[in-house]
Write a structure and sequence with these properties.
Length: about 200
């Protein structure tokens, strides 16, 4: 199983000005924008870390998920949340030939924890022998920073600020997640029980 981000979060959506304010960086100088690239990278790293720990996609964007077998031929749980749309389900034969499936045969069950692709009145489109299936999906809380829940937005800023402050630390502090960030994201973490969870 492989989840691939098809398009990155646009630079314009990143809250660089909010992070500057959070860090209390000086403003009003000709070189105010000199740190914007660095701050953007720290925001992206913080968001990626939070997404990996929670399974929640913060800013809406397109993903493709490729798998070689359904866990359940009627209901396949999706690897991230929230999922706003299933764009396509494509069968991929062992020789690479791709076939779009009929969208009348499946539908999305939205859920903030475990969204699913569900068959309509039967089973999901079969995975070709020695092939795979690729699901195109749009996931995220919304297209803008203001669409994020307040606690996840705050956690992202806190973690980006932590990375920024520890950027010259060779002792490993940059790799640690501050307790305040963990407390904010813990309610979003999905607990997986058993092989089918």
């Amino acid at each position: 199983m492989m989840l691939v981000e098809e398009n990155p979060v646009p630079d314009a959506v990143l809250p660089v000005a909010q992070l500057k304010e959070y860090l209390r960086l000086a403003t009003g100088f000709a070189d105010d924008a000199d740190q914007d690239g660095l701050l953007s990278r720290h925001l992206r790293a913080a968001m990626a870390a939070i997404e990996a720990r929670t399974g929640k996609i913060l800013i809406e964007r397109d993903f493709s998920w490729t798998l070689r077998a359904w866990r359940d031929p009627v209901r396949q749980l999706l690897p991230a949340a929230p999922v706003n749309a299933i764009v396509h389900v494509t069968q991929i034969a062992h020789d690479g030939v791709e076939t779009l499936t009929n969208p009348d045969g499946w539908y999305l069950v939205p859920d903030t924890a475990r969204p699913a692709l569900v068959a309509k009145g039967g089973i999901l489109p079969p995975v070709p022998p020695h092939g795979s299936v690729r699901i195109g999906l749009m996931a995220g809380f919304g297209p803008d920073w203001s669409d994020l829940p307040a606690d996840l937005a705050e956690a992202s800023l806190m973690l980006a600020a932590h990375h920024y402050d520890a950027r010259h630390d060779m002792g490993g502090a940059q790799g640690l997640v501050p307790a305040g960030v963990t407390a904010l994201i813990d309610p979003y973490r999905v607990i997986r029980l058993g092989a089918r969870a």
